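Re: your question about Endonuclease

S., sorry for the slow reply, the queue was backed up all week. Below is exactly what I fed in.
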Amino acid sequence: MSLRLATFNIENLMSRFDFSGFRNQLKQDRVLRLFDVRSEAEYQRLEEARTIAHTDDTRQMSALAIADCDADILCLQEADNMAALQAFEYGYLFRMVGNGYRQKYLIEGNDSRGIDVAVLMREETRDGQPIECLDVKSHAGLTYADLDLFNDELAQTNRPGDRIFKRDCLEVDLRIGGRPLTLYVVHFKSMGPAREGLDGRQATMPLRVAEAKAVRHIIESRFGRGRTADKTFAICGDMNDYQEKVEIRGDRRNGYEFVPSEEETSALDILSLDGFVENPMLRRPVLDRWTLFHSRGPQERHLCQLDYIWLSPALNSRNASRTPEIIRAGQPFRTIFPEGQEVERYPRTGWDRPKASDHCPIVMTLDI
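Result:
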């Protein structure tokens, strides 16, 4: 019995407008900076029109990427709320590509922008096995003090009573054709701006380390420390961190060079330590594991894996011959692909927008 499981940071699936750019130019879209907008009312009218026009192209591409996943269960990051999720599922996934998801689960989390993690599921797998949701639990309320995770590094920006997860860890108990499967859907703290001599990744690392420790604690509390290896579970989502990357050197005129390297430290080491969970993406070639192109200009460009389906040892062993798929047709044209990986982009894809997302969805067929 097989199951198609996918994860995708759909990026800002919003049901509301953000007018803060009128007073804060850092939040103002670049196209509106080209025009002399003289009043807040005029700015709001233009921002509404820009957002709506841009969003339709973007969501068509997001729907095409999800359709290419052809997943039975889809874990999403950056969904605004259930109303936005329902409107997208019906208006795009169902009406546009003919495949919808009747079962939807989203619990409001901690993100200051209101973006949440969610799970969409079909009523049965492609081979006719029923997909039953037994329980959905949010862990958004956990604090550093609750799990005794507070330390000097966190003290620079946080207090003991602050919540660990910057979004949530959504625990979903399922029964697929009568067999158990538990999903943990997460979206870890993003890499912020440089601070006190540290780059954005290192400056925010303590927050992601705490989130990874909390996820591991939740799973070990559920199944028992030292007794998780034979359980059937997966951790899915955007981890906003990586254990390796591929540096991009060169330019369009002279060609590019792709140089892989491993990171000395990563928040994800907490999860991979002692084989607690396995990253099946490592079965792909080292230049072909990336799910995101990062660029801060020619001086800083790399490919890395931010999006994961971590498998429990039992689930990984059962699927040792299977490899995750990466859907890259929704990537903008600015993304630099290693030779041989180029794909045909979706219609109307732009240089950097519109696009399905900066993140590539990943999907894996699993024997459960």
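The mean pLDDT is 96. The first strand starts at residue 2 and ends at 13.

Happy to talk it through on Thursday.
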